[in-house]
Amino acid sequence: MHIHEHQGKEVLRKYGVPVPRGHACFSPDEAVEAAARLGGRAWVVKAQIHAGGKGQAGGVRRAWSAAEVRRHAGELLGTTLRTPQTGPAGRVVRRLLVEESVEVEQAFYLGMAVDRDARRVALTASGAGAGRAPQKLHRLLVDPAAGVRAAEADGIARDIGFSGRQLPQVRTLVQNLYQAFDACDAARAEIDPLVLTRDGRILALGASFDFDPSALFRQPEIAAMRDPHEEDPAEAEAWRAGFSYTPFGGEIGCLVNGAGLARATTDAIRLHGGVPAHVLDVGGGATAEQVAEAFRLVLRHPRLRAVLVNVFGGLLKCDVAARGLIAAAREAALSVPLVVRMKGTNETLGRTLLGQSGLAIIHADQIDEAAGFAVASALSTPRPGAH
Question: Has 190 been annotated as catalytic?
Answer without folding.
Answer: yes
